[in-house]
Design a protein that fits this description.
The complex is a heterodimer of chains A (about 270) and B (about 260). Chain A is an alpha/beta fold and about 270 residues long. Chain A has helices spanning about 5, 30-40, 60-65, 70-75, 80-85, 110-120, 140-145, 160-175, 195-210, 230-235, 240-245, 250-265, and strands at about 15-20, 45-50, 85, 95, 130-135, 150-155, 180-190, 220-225. In chain A, strands 3-4-2-5-1-6-7-8 form an 8-stranded mixed sheet, sandwiched between helices. In chain A, helix 2 (about 30-40) crosses helix 12 (about 250-265). The two termini of chain A are about 15 Å apart. The model of chain A is unreliable at about 1-10 (pLDDT under 50). Chain B contains 9 helices and 7 strands, in the order H-H-H-E-H-H-E-E-H-E-E-E-H-E-H-H. Chain B is of the alpha+beta class and about 260 residues long. Chain B has helices at about 20-25, 40-55, 65-80, 95-100, 105-120, 145-160, 190-205, 225-230, 250-255; strands at about 85-90, 125-130, 135-140, 165, 170, 175-180, 215. The radius of gyration of chain B is 27 Å and the shape is flat. The chains are: A alpha/beta (about 270), B alpha+beta (about 260). The interface of A and B includes residues 157, 174, 192 and 201 of A.
């Protein structure tokens, strides 16, 4: 069995599907997804961002998109998946679930099958698919994460965010047998914060979370995004940071994150 | 209906009750009602029919209809309370061999015996159901993750060690494979998913050799005070920036992998 198979849950659709999730809402998950997608696109990757929160994601808000056709129309047979894919300002593709999907928050086996079918059909056309999931451990989130080869977990240094991140990692490792989770610490104050936080989370996980394989989940510190007023400015203008303020510290940090994902995650996919 | 309007009196002799009475008469626990008053008589009859419609006739356990209703109620409850509940799916191992080797009446006796054994293993608040064929289900409300395996293991070992007399002087032993899954606390998850997760574990138990228990990990999202204490213990404060000099080297964490 190859190393990739051992670290990826059985349900994962492909190693190039990356879930972006968080323990708590409001930590910048969708902001990270959108801006990371733009940064990966600039590196020459064909990127799709998929609203995996089934209509509750704020991707359309962050990117100022108003699509007429969404995944909901695909599921109900009113449109093809190609009609539902829109181009975002950063040059990457976006597939929004649409507000009609909220009724699918009851995640029936049919909805799951359809979601997987759509995801699989899109894979050949993209180098990387980012799943913008909801926060926490609802079954919609757990389902979306289970499809991904890798999990990127966004947290901020606040104690509430860390507690919820820890709880989410615990569930991912115990219920989904995740072997590793990549951490993005957003809104850090000083260099080194993110690495220290990741190390701290790892220590507590090692002590309290045991898996049936005996190997605890491994956290990999992917990088920090420093607290930066230009982020708020870009979000308020509903623009990508790389367009609004490409030389800001946060934009540069996101470019570095994309670099690292390219070189360490996607190279295996 | 206005209160002044009394309902028209019912003439029992004008109702066709023969089939209903015959159904009740077949069941030893549901005797046909004694005709005291018309209302009491009909209520008794209706109650009896309702009970019949929720029971499996062979084993007396809940049938699939009641099982689903119990599961729905349980999901409602855990969504509100955040409590845990366990669903066990049990399947008698190699049941076909019993039917083929000893005949279907013996198979029926085995089903009844296993149902009885189950009834002795669970709490009054638990629901036992015959899910179909030789498959049973147990719904255990308020069952904490730590006790789930103990309960399932107890059921498995008692079934294994209980001889079943299928004919005078002929006793056999059967085993069961058990799969179980917990509800997601606070989450309104459809019961079909809950059943599917338990079924998946049952499949695992079967494929790993039968006569065993497989449970899926409950999604334990609770964070104890002790864990919280440690989580924030070492986050550097303003005076403690010295440990972070390696941060800017992007190759560093790549090397650690």
């Amino acid at each position: 069995m190859s190393e990739a198979l051992k670290t990826t849950p059985a349900e994962a659709v492909s190693a190039k599907v990356l879930a972006i999730t968080s323990g708590k809402g409001g930590v910048g998950k969708t902001f990270v997804a959108a801006n990371l997608a733009a940064a990966l696109t600039r590196r020459g990757q064909r990127v799709l961002v998929l609203d995996a929160d089934l209509g509750l994601a704020n991707l359309d808000v962050v990117l100022n998109l108003h699509p007429k056709v969404t995944l909901h129309d695909v599921f109900t047979g009113k449109a093809t998946v190609d009609e539902a894919i829109v181009k975002a300002p950063g040059g990457f593709s976006v597939l929004l679930a649409g507000s009609g999907m909220v009724e699918y928050s009851r995640l029936t086996p049919e909805v799951r099958d359809e979601f997987v079918r759509v995801l699989r059909s899109l894979l050949p056309r993209f180098d990387v698919v980012l799943l913008d999931t909801g926060a926490g451990i609802s079954d919609v989130v757990l389902f979306a994460v289970s499809l991904a080869g890798e999990v990127l977990l966004v947290a901020t240094p606040e104690p509430t965010s860390l507690t919820d991140a820890y709880a989410a990692i615990k569930v991912l490792s115990m219920q989904q047998k995740r072997r590793q989770v990549r951490m993005i610490i957003n809104q850090t104050v000083r260099p080194g914060d993110g690495r220290a936080i990741t190390g701290q989370l790892q220590q507590v996980l090692d002590r309290f979370v045991s898996t049936d394989t005996g190997r605890p989940v491994r956290l990999i510190h992917l990088g920090d995004i420093p607290a930066d007023p230009s982020v708020r400015d870009a979000v308020m203008r509903r623009q990508l940071l790389s367009i609004n303020n490409p030389n800001s510290p946060a934009a540069m940090a996101i470019a570095q994150l994309a670099n690292k994902i390219d070189e360490t995650v996607l190279i295996k996919a | 209906m206005s209160p002044s309007q009394a309902p028209a009196p019912i003439d029992l002799s004008s109702l066709r009750l023969d089939t209903a009475l015959a159904l009740l008469a077949q069941d030893e626990e549901l005797h046909p009602p004694a005709p005291e008053s018309t209302t009491g008589y009909l209520q008794h009859l209706i109650d009896g029919l309702c009970e019949l419609s929720l029971k499996d006739p062979l084993t007396g356990l809940a049938n699939r209809r009641q099982f689903r209703a119990v599961l729905e109620r349980e999901v409602d409850r855990v969504t509100r309370t955040g409590e845990s509940a366990l669903l066990l799916m049990l399947d008698i191992d190699r049941f076909k061999l019993v039917n083929d080797g000893h005949g279907h009446p013996a198979g029926d006796i085995v089903l009844q015996s296993v149902a009885n054994t189950l009834a002795n293993c669970v709490r009054p608040m638990d629901t036992l159901a015959r899910y179909g064929g030789e498959e049973f289900a147990v719904v255990l409300p308020g069952c904490q993750a730590a006790f789930g395996r103990a309960v399932a293991e107890r059921i498995r070992s008692i079934v294994e060690s209980t001889p079943i007399t299928i004919a005078p002087g002929v006793a056999i032993n059967v085993t069961v494979s058990i799969g179980g899954s917990f509800t997601l606390p606070w989450v309104r998850s459809p019961i079909s998913l809950w059943i599917e997760r338990a079924d998946h574990q049952l499949y695992r138990a079967k494929s790993e050799g039968r006569n065993r228990v497989c449970l899926d990990f409950p999604p334990d999202s609770t964070v104890s005070a002790e864990e919280k204490g440690l989580l924030f213990y070492d986050v550097p404060d303003q005076d403690d920036a010295g440990t972070s000099t390696d941060q800017s080297d992007p190759a560093d964490s790549a090397n650690r992998k």
